[in-house]
Amino acid sequence: MTVLELSQHPHVDLADLVPQIEAGETVEIWRDGRSLGRLALVTGAAPWPGDMAAFRGSLGATTFPGSYVESIRQDDGR
Amino acid sequence: MSAYLDASALVALYLPEVFSDAADQAVQQLADRVVSDLTVTEARVAIDRRRKSGDITADACARALARLNQHVAAGIYRQVPWSVSWFADGVALAGSVAVPVRAMDAVHVAIARSLGLAVMSFDRNQRRAARAMGVSLIPAQLPTDLA
């Protein structure tokens, strides 16, 4: 991780850091000896849980014969 | 692959309906599952509405809502910050196509379009709107006997 102290680089353009971020590096932004935040690559979401069919089955609910959200949107007529 | 999940996709994942298996298959292909405050709010209300209509028990409703909330908190979905401009984008998009479009469908599709994402939806009206607006759909086709 790279630390960028803004008081030492007052004219830095944060856009110049994009290549480093894209390369997977995390840059922590500091000002006057205090951490303000981090710039980092956005990674994918947490893994999808594989147990959803079993979860739905455990609810004891009947299977709705279509898209439930579509049906209530039709009712609301919006 | 990334997609913006409509409430019709979220509800199919948490409560049993004919599209649930298709929703499972589609969502497993996604590395980035994007939702908005609007999607999550609509899904929560829809799940509770099945309880109020007597379609599911209070326990099933509570468990489905808890599982959805747990997934949102755990980062299973990427919840994008709300942008007020999406309302105007939706109005402009709805006005740009010949087919009739419901207001919230236009907003959902506008969100996906502004983020450069496909829409994962099982609402046939919304799918027609998205297609007319040039936004890709997940799944590309609904199961033929259910479409």
Explain what this protein looks like in three dimensions.
The complex is a heterodimer of chains A (78) and B (147). Chain A is an alpha+beta fold and 78 residues long. Chain A contains three helices and three strands, in the order E-H-E-E-H-H. In chain A, strands 1-2-3 form a three-stranded mixed sheet, with no helix packed on it. The mean pLDDT of chain A is 86. In chain B, helix 1 crosses helix 2 (20-28) and helix 3 (37-52) packs antiparallel against helix 4.
Could you name the key traits of this structure?
heterodimer, A: 78 residues, alpha+beta, three-stranded mixed sheet, 3 helices, B: 147 residues, alpha/beta, five-stranded parallel sheet, 7 helices, 10% strand
Q: Give the spatial strand order of the biggest sheet of chain B.
A: 3-2-1-4-5
**Biggest sheet of chain A: strands side by side, in what order?**
1-2-3
Rg of chain A is: 24 Å
User: For the report, how would you describe the main beta sheet of chain A?
Assistant: 3 strands, mixed
Give the number of DSSP strands of chain B. 5
Mean pLDDT of chain B, as a whole number? 93
Mean of the pLDDT scores of chain A? 86
Content of β-strand of chain A: 15-25%
Low-confidence stretches of chain A: none
Question: What's this model, at a glance?
Answer:
The complex is a heterodimer of chains A (78) and B (147). Chain A has 78 residues and is α+β, with helices and mostly antiparallel strands. Chain A has 3 helices and 3 strands.
List the helices and strands and how they pair.
The complex is a heterodimer of chains A (78) and B (147).
Chain A: E1 2-5, H1 18-22, E2 27-31, E3 34-39, H2 52-58, H3 68-76
Parallel strand pairs in A: 1-2
Antiparallel strand pairs in A: 2-3
Chain B: E1 2-5, H1 7-14, H2 20-28, E2 32-35, H3 37-52, H4 58-73, E3 78-79, H5 85-95, H6 103-115, E4 118-120, H7 124-132, E5 137-138
Parallel strand pairs in B: 1-2, 1-4, 2-3, 4-5
Helix pairs in contact in B: 1-2, 1-3, 3-4, 5-6
